[in-house]
Amino acid sequence: MSQATAAIQTDTHAEHHEELNFLHKYILPVDHKVIAMQYIFTGLIMAIIGGYFAYAFRMQLAFPGELVPFYGLVGPGEYNMLVTNHGTIMIFWVAMPVLIAGFGNFLIPLMIGCDDMVFPRLNRLSYQIFLVSALVLIASFFVTGGGFGGAWTAYPPLSSVAEYSLTDWGASLWILAVALEFVSFLLGGINFVTTAMNARAPGMKMWDIPIAVWFIVIAVILFMASVGPLIAGSVMLFMDQRIGTSFFLPSGGGDPLLWQHLFWFFGHPEVYVVLLPTLGIVADIITVFSRKKLFGYKTVIYTAFATGGLSFVVWAHHQFIAGIDPRMANVFVVTTVLISIPLAEMMFSYIATLYGGSIELKTPMLWALSFIAAFLIGGVTGIYLGASAVDVYLHDSYFVLAHFHYTFFPITIIGMFAALTFWFPKMFGRMMNETLGKIHFWGTFIPFNCIFLPLFFLGLAGQHRRIYNYNHFPDLATQELQNIRIFATVSLVVMLCFQLVFVYNFFVSMFKGEKAPENPWNANTLEWSIPSPPPHGNFKTLPTVYRGPYEYSVPGREMDYWPQHVPPEES
Amino acid sequence: MKPSSSQSVLFATSEVSLPSQPRSAKAPVSNGVVGMLIFMVTEAMFFAALISAYMVIRAGLEEWPPWGQPRLPVETTAFNTLVLLVSGLLMGYSRTLLKKNKIAEGRRWLGISILLGTFFLISQGYEWVQLLQFGLTVSSSVYGGLFYLIIGAHGFHVMGTLVALSYAWNRLGASENQITPEGLFPAQLLWYFVVCVWPILYVLVYLT
Questions:
Q1: pLDDT at position A213
Q2: Which of A187, A230, A469, B179 is a plausible cystine mate for A64, CB 3.0–4.6 Å?
Q3: Tens digit of each residue's pLDDT (9 = 90 or more) over A361-379
Q4: Do A119 and B35 touch (CB under 8 A)?
Q5: Which of A192, A208, A247 to mutate to test the interface with B (most CBs of B within 10 A)?
Q6: A568 in a domain, yes or no?
Q7: Is residue A561 part of a domain?
Q8: Beta-bridge partner residues of A561
Q9: How many Å separate Cα A119 from the centre of its chain?
Q10: B14–A232 C-beta distance less than 8 A
Q11: Strands (E) located in A304-438
């Protein structure tokens, strides 16, 4: 494919490709693909830690007070620390680095046809700060008193007073790690938006950009616009903890609700920050594997803008029982329920894309379809929680927990596997094993539902989220409810075991897999027009873009795909 | 790993760019400026959060400033505000000169602007020392905490921007590896931001 354009221009590229030594290639890279790998691998390692924490506290819930194999005894303080850091890690150190920083770094330059990010050193600095933040977080588990245990939302005064949280330095290192991580993504985000705006290949107009890139950029803009208040809040919380201010302490004239507003003003857009990249990745995958044009390309992008805009005015639905004015709560009920309209529209566009397509159920497609199915359950249950009257009953119950795991698990884990299996050939130059991929898919998706569907019922039965041993609550300690807990925990263990299949498949395929061609999936976007894996500098010559990214099964063409860089035939 | 030629280290453009072709069909705004504008959105939200925090906490207290806390020096700071605003104007003047390629003259006014900014910073620091002696500390009251938080956050931005501008000033006069006026522009933009935020903070914290 690429030879057509390559022939037109002379190769001016060779002189810029002196071999880099190991240090500059892998430890201090400026190449966006290597930085992407660093982010993805760091994120995967953090995912292992987060999964291990989930295993430990689920075992405690199913078999309270017993020794957990491979962990030990989970005490109440330790339980809080495990839950808190499971949430923090999965959102800030898995979803963000893998989906946004990792795949953003890998995909943006390749999909818009340029050689690298526009600020490669800023990019490198961004990863280095991210790595430091991860190390600070891990260090916080080992200081006296253990890791922070005040939930990932860190509500003061529990989080700001060491006598309450009993984790003096754990809490401070936690907030420091979170703040450092934001600085890292701030730098990365500046880079992403600037690259997508200024460095597109000739001919690539706004409406020729693949949805994955569009959505990562919109997500980054949301992040940039919402993170300021949380950075301010983190600084204030850190000052409360360490130098004796009282911004969030009522006794000193402060306001604990203020933190909740600052946190959730970021926290709710953050949900869409991690959601949008996955939605974009899924859009790209379902068009490739249903061999159809994306239904309503522009509509899908407009709905993303609408979602992003609305996400800034829904934050107080996390605080319905925190003592905010009920009249204000009503306003937030309306905006919260409104936001389901653009998202539903987007989902219908995806389903309409599938309708009548020649669907190929390859592993990435399975992941993409399961994302749509699972995310719909998460979205629909969210409507109940958005209504303040219902939320008064359901707040802080396992219903909330099941709801957001039905959104975050598809976003983070399913989205990550969809992207990894889809772009694996481009990343490592080899194909993944399909059979093992499918075993892993079913071994993850079925247990996932077995973990979280029962939790909805536990929540409706009144089970509160933050209790480490239900034996102390006679109403919740019945055998019936305990059986559900055991079922969920066993499902989790089964799911974790199936991840070994993925690890095996990943590493064996990376070194021994079948060699991948340039374009194994017959896809249109620019990253498939270059060798797998792409060389340093990506494109031999800058490609010219002639059409949108989703021209599949165009009538009158012999091939059912029409890559963006292939010139139109002479008529 | 060649050093970048025309811009500061972090804002260096790609090392593997293709010389035969422009990186993009059209880039109406340079990379540095786009990056800085996005950064300024975040900064604006950061200060908006501080301002709203101030107003929320203040609305919850009956007495403001709390009993026994020193009053802030309104007049000295008014003069300081003036100095900072003049510095911002001079920054704009140096930018027009630099755009006309009068490098030496533009560099001189840039230097004067930086000096005025430094005066502002030192004067603020002196004010802090006095306030500390009068008993206004971060932990003396939430009033003191907010004062040092907001004015300190602004002070950090002044300091950081001045460091960047001084570095650029130095590079502008260097015999080789000179920075271009366009390469300098993002740092100047940040200075405009820092100057424009200050009057809002002054009115909020000192006057009302």
A1: 96
A2: A469
A3: 999 999 999 999 999 999 9
A4: yes
A5: A247
A6: no
A7: no
A8: A552
A9: 23
A10: no
A11: none
Q: Is the peptide bond before B73 cis (omega within 30 degrees of 0)?
A: no
Backbone phi and psi for residue A473, each to the nearest 5 degrees, phi listed first: -125, 100
Residue A570 confidence (pLDDT): 61
pLDDT 10s digits, A293-322: 999 999 999 999 999 999 999 999 999 988
Closest CB from B18, B46, B139 relative to A542: B18
Position A184 in a domain: yes
Total domains in the fold of chain A: 1
Q: pLDDT tens digits, residue range A166-223?
A: 999 999 999 999 999 999 999 999 999 999 999 999 889 999 999 999 999 999 999 9
Nearest beta carbon to residue B142 from set A9, A235, A246: A246
Position B87, amino acid: S
Beta strand segments in chain B, E = none
Q: What is the CATH number of the domain that holds A38?
A: 1.20.210.10
- Total residues found in chain A within this entry: 571
Distance CA A279, CA A219 (A): 11
Token digits for A401? 């927990």
pLDDT of B115-154, one tens digit each? 999 999 999 999 999 999 999 998 889 999 999 999 999 9
Structural domain contains residue A557: no
How many beta-carbon pairs below 8 A join chains A and B? 169
Mutate to test the interface with B, among A191, A197, A265, A565 (most CBs of B within 10 A): A197
Q: Which of B7, B14, B40 to mutate to test the interface with A (most CBs of A within 10 A)?
A: B14
For the segment A512-528, the average pLDDT, to the nearest whole number, is 94
Instruction: Give A320: exposed, middle or buried? Use CB within 10 Å, 0-12, 13-18, 19+.
Output: buried
- Separation of alpha carbons A511 and A428, rounded Å: 9
Q: Which of residues 201-220 of A touch B (CB under 8 A)?
A: 201-204
Mean pLDDT of A256-278: 94
CB of A115 within 8 Å of a chain B CB? The answer is yes
The verdict on pTM exceeding 0.80 is yes
**Integer Cα distance of A171 and A174 in angstroms:** 5
A202 vs B25, B35, B153: nearest CB: B25
Task: Determine whether the interchain pair A199/B39 forms a contact, defined as Cβ–Cβ distance below 8 Å.
Answer: no
Across B170-194, average pLDDT:
90
Gap between the Cα atoms of A483 and A59, Å rounded = 13
Tell me which architecture the domain covering B74-207 has in CATH. Answer: Up-down Bundle (1.20)
Interface of A with B in 463-502 (CB under 8 A): none
Q: Which residue of B10, B18, B49 is in closest CB contact with A228?
A: B49
Q: Measure the CA–CA gap between A222 and A268, rounded to whole angstroms.
A: 10
Q: Tell me how far the alpha carbon of residue A93 is from its chain's centroid.
A: 9
Residue A183 contacts B where some CB pair is shorter than 8 Å:
no
